[in-house]
Amino acid sequence: MEALTVHEGNTAVLERANVDTDQIIPKQFLKRVERTGFGQFLFFDWRFKSDGEEDPSFELNYPSAVNASILIADHNFGSGSSREHAPWALQDYGFRVIVAPSYSDIFYNNCVKNGILPVRLPENQVYELMQNGKNREYHLTVDLQNQQISDKNEGFQATFEIDPYWKEMLLNGWDEISITLQYEEDIEAYEKRVKV
Amino acid sequence: MKPRTIIDKIWNEHAVRAEAGKPNLMYVDLHMVHEVTSPQAFEGLRLSGRPVRRPDLTFATMDHNVPTLNRESITDAISKKQIDTLFDNCKEFGVELADIHSPNNGIVHIIGPELGLTQPGKTIVCGDSHTSTHGAFGALAFGIGTSEVEHVLATQTLWQSPPKTMEVHVDGRLGTGVTAKDIILSIIAKFGVDFGSGYVLEYTGEAIRGLTMEERMTICNMSIEAGARAGLISPDQVTFDYLKGRRFVPEGAAFDEKVNQWRQLATDEGAEYDERVVIAGDEIEPMVTWGTNPSQGVGIHGTVPYPEDGRNATEKKVIKTSLDYMALEPGTKITDIHVQHVFLGSCTNARIGDLREAAKIIRGNKVAEGIRAMVVPGSQQVKLQAEEEGLDQVFKEAGFEWRDSGCSMCLGMNPDFVPEGERCASTSNRNFEGRQGKGARTHLVSPAMAAGAAIYGHFVDVRNLDKTVSS
Ligand code: SF4
């Protein structure tokens, strides 16, 4: 997984609550057996009209959201199905950071395992970011080491919390399985003791 | 010793490593696998040259892509590839698979309990959010993503932060005609789609104790719709009776010994939870959802709300968007909502008890004009059992389609889906936009309520049916 230390990028604002993974990547695209290539299907039913044209009224299609790599969304982002295709699609489309007041647990885990940083900020700060980024290009800098998020010109600055374990993983881009396999002895001892 | 919850007990017993300030390394007792969320995980193993550490604790099935008619011949090339890939992966890595031809095939969360793989005290994971279903047995069961599937295949463990615990207490007795589905829909309607976030829920109370194992599974199944990682119910005699004699459950003296251990698991008197919510079971009515998330539901005698009913700007907007998508006018009576489809199926409500409940209402009646109604049993075993009891005849005579098992119209990855703009009474668990098909409008209900809607063409109070049904 690609390490993430400091990320600077344009934002896209999704002023919607409870965005579920069925919306992030509709089921008709879950049939691939690879991990790559899901970006083209991200938010498919919202992004495209039934004739296949891009829907200009959908937030990611606003000219201001071009090349956005930071997604700002409302409460309970990524709820519903556990499909990891959702973070794969977000990442393949170009997102490295998400900012929202809350996430579903499984989605949150799936993000960090794929090198996407899900930032939790209080509702009022998220709404401030939404106002700042609505309908215009708006760049943020996210500094994971110092757990800070800020812009250049509007004076927005906030700190965020993240579990130190996830932070390490993201900062170093570690492969979790190789870390776990260092504890092979503990796992074996457990199996002997409990007789599984 | 300090009284403990079942959640704490299972957690402590499974910690391979527990260092302060870090997630714990948890041992996984059972890993269920299906075709949609596993191909990339097996591929990862192959690329890094790793084996499946404990194939004997891993069990696979195919369900999401399986057609419910002519299941042997899959015409969709990409579906077929996913099915074939799982077959090949299981063979290569030595994992037991209930494939399409197996009498044990069915929806992953239905066959686990059916085969007795699901047992009290186990940690159970699967790359599927409704893994919470298995919690009905007093197991700690939760959904994981595909990276975690690979991690479990390779190590039989997972890094997890200890969960917070919440008691969801359902007081009193259910009225007749009120079901487990109505309990869970009421809980989510009352407390919202993310009240369980970060928690493992334990359902307690008289109303819960009175439920069968199948009904308990319906409740635990939808814990994820409350945002919870998992939901469970302390095991009791009902649990042990259900498990006795199933394929993976020990027999004879070994069974009695297991039961003794399982009894110790139940939450101790006086144990403390981090949170507690209470709901009155005797006030619960048959529920119908009107919106596009599972908390947007009301009792059968309710009406569709107004956006202004939202408590804040976000909620008002959510109601408005949902109503637009569902094409419903605020103030509409739930009993005035007409449907074109009825789907009886899914891991929430497609067990034998669900089919029996629906059949009671269907028997001797006909599906209303213009309605397409379908029964998709949750597993091939459920299907067989229903046929032995003659339930298939009851449904078919009424005008229902009788299908093979699978996820089917719950998410429409196979050929079964609801066409754009049409409305479906569904016994499944998600009413998200496009869930049952692009532009499809889903109303979540219990099997009995779905049966009532099939006969009348609109939602009816199943509690009054024997009075209102004409000759
Ligand atoms: S029946 Fe529906 S909810 Fe259950 S596993 Fe299948 S797709 Fe998921």
TrEMBL record, chain A:
Biological process according to GO: L-leucine biosynthetic process
The pathway entry for this protein reads as: Amino-acid biosynthesis; L-leucine biosynthesis; L-leucine from 3-methyl-2-oxobutanoate: step 2/4
User: Which Pfam family is one of those matched by this entry?
Assistant: Aconitase_C
List the Gene Ontology MF annotations in alphabetical order.
3-isopropylmalate dehydratase activity
Reaction catalysed by this enzyme? (2R,3S)-3-isopropylmalate = (2S)-2-isopropylmalate
Read off the InterPro entries from this record: 3-IsopropMal_deHydase_ssu (IPR004431), Aconitase/3IPM_dehydase_swvl (IPR015928), AconitaseA/IPMdHydase_ssu_swvl (IPR000573), IPMI_Swivel (IPR033940), LeuD (IPR050075)
User: Does the record carry Lyase as a key word?
Assistant: yes
Q: State the similarity comment.
A: Belongs to the LeuD family. LeuD type 1 subfamily.
Sum up the protein's function in the record's words. Catalyzes the isomerization between 2-isopropylmalate and 3-isopropylmalate, via the formation of 2-isopropylmaleate.
Listed under subunit, the entry gives: Heterodimer of LeuC and LeuD.
Q: Name the chain's protein.
A: 3-isopropylmalate dehydratase small subunit
Source organism of this protein record: Marinococcus halophilus
TrEMBL record, chain B:
Q: What is this protein called?
A: 3-isopropylmalate dehydratase large subunit
User: What cofactor(s) does the depicted protein rely on?
Assistant: [4Fe-4S] cluster
The family annotation for this protein states: Belongs to the aconitase/IPM isomerase family. LeuC type 1 subfamily.
Where in this chain does the entry annotate a coiled-coil region?
none
Q: Which UniProt keywords apply?
A: 4Fe-4S, Amino-acid biosynthesis, Branched-chain amino acid biosynthesis, Iron, Iron-sulfur, Leucine biosynthesis, Lyase, Metal-binding
Q: One Pfam annotation, family name?
A: Aconitase
**Pathway(s) where this gene product acts:** Amino-acid biosynthesis; L-leucine biosynthesis; L-leucine from 3-methyl-2-oxobutanoate: step 2/4
Q: How does it assemble?
A: Heterodimer of LeuC and LeuD.
What task does this protein carry out? Catalyzes the isomerization between 2-isopropylmalate and 3-isopropylmalate, via the formation of 2-isopropylmaleate.
| CDD domains the record matches | IPMI
Task: Tell me if Amino-acid biosynthesis is a UniProt keyword of this record.
Answer: yes
Q: What is the lineage of its organism?
A: Bacteria, Bacillati, Bacillota, Bacilli, Bacillales
Q: Name one GO molecular function term.
A: aconitate hydratase activity
Q: Which GO terms describe its biological process?
A: L-leucine biosynthetic process
Q: What does the entry comment about cofactor binding?
A: Binds 1 [4Fe-4S] cluster per subunit.
What domain of life does the native source organism fall in?
Bacteria
Q: Identify the InterPro entries for this entry.
A: 3-IsopropMal_deHydase_lsu, Acnase/IPM_dHydase_lsu_aba_1/3, Acoase/IPM_deHydtase_lsu_aba, Aconitase_4Fe-4S_BS, Aconitase_4Fe-4S_dom, IPM_dehydratase_rel_enz, IPMI_cat
Looking at the record, the residues that make up the Aconitase/3-isopropylmalate dehydratase large subunit alpha/beta/alpha domain are 8-457
Q: What's its top-level EC category? A: lyase
What this protein catalyses is: (2R,3S)-3-isopropylmalate = (2S)-2-isopropylmalate; citrate = D-threo-isocitrate
Q: What is its EC number?
A: 4.2.1.33
Q: In which residues is [4Fe-4S] cluster bound? A: 347, 407, 410
